[in-house]
Amino acid sequence: MKLPIEGGCACRGIRYECTASTFVMAHCHCRDCQYSSGTGHSSVLVVPVSTVQITGYPKYYESISSDGNKVRRGFCPECGTPLFSGSDAFKEVMGIKASSLDNPSEFEPVIETWTSSAPPWDILSPDTHKFLKDMEA
Asked: For residue 136, is it within any domain?
């Protein structure tokens, strides 16, 4: 993926730039990601928090994940575009929603997590490494 990684929301009220390469590109099928994406999974780039500059003011929704950690979902309060995710379990990294990239065709997932929660109509890629739960499972 070309650096810097750039993107933002549909109304352009929030923009971001990331200067680091991604740790991983993934599809997450956990129930929380299903709710926040409105479909069977969420597609994210995991990057170091310290390398992301955000212009504008995302709104964050917090919930408790199935493993008991607080998770945050950042979105544009004006147009509703999902943008970011994060967890108290991994404070040094954050997720950037692949659909918010200026060039989403550069997204190439290599793993899929929480595949045990994937609905039968959400087709898993034959090219990704699968985890039934999180990456430690």
From this structure: no
